[in-house]
Amino acid sequence: MSDVSRLPGSAHHYWQWQARAACRDLGSNRFFHPAGERGEDREVRDEAAKQVCAGCPVRAACLEHALTTREPFGVWGGLTEEERRALLDDRTPARVRQSA
After folding, report:
1. Most buried pick, 12, 57, 74, 77, via CB within 10 A?
2. Residue 23, annotated ligand binder?
3. Would the keyword Iron be found if you checked this record's keyword annotation (predicted)?
């Protein structure tokens, strides 16, 4: 579950980017894996999601949202949860990671 304390608020301008997202009408199955999905099935699904993201006009805003809210699941802005976690780890100074 997302940490809602990091959400930007209910103001419309914080969420406008979602209306222009390439994934808007595609459903969530391509972007969120079912419980227990592993291996090639997961890689194929993730790659299909990333292909949608690659041509998305709001990819950067989507990724920034996922990083800011620490979105724990799914492909957001072209990155899987593991890729986002690694990116956040690279952004976090070692002394902060050690104290967590």
Report:
1. 77
2. yes
3. yes
> Per the structure block, which two tokens stand in for 59?
């990819």
> b/e per residue, 80-91, with b = 16+ CB within 10 A?
bbebbeeeeeee
Model pTM greater than 0.90? no
Distances (CA, A) of 76 to 29, 59, 85: 13, 8, 12
Domain spans in the chain, listed from the N-terminal domain onward: 12-99
Residue 31 assigned as binding residue: no
Is 88 flagged in the annotation as binding?
A: no
List the chain pLDDT tens, one digit each, 100 residues: 556 565 555 555 667 889 999 999 999 999 999 999 999 999 999 999 999 999 999 999 999 999 998 999 999 999 999 999 999 887 766 544 444 5
CB 52 within 8 A of CB 22: yes
Would you say 62 is a known binding-site residue?
yes
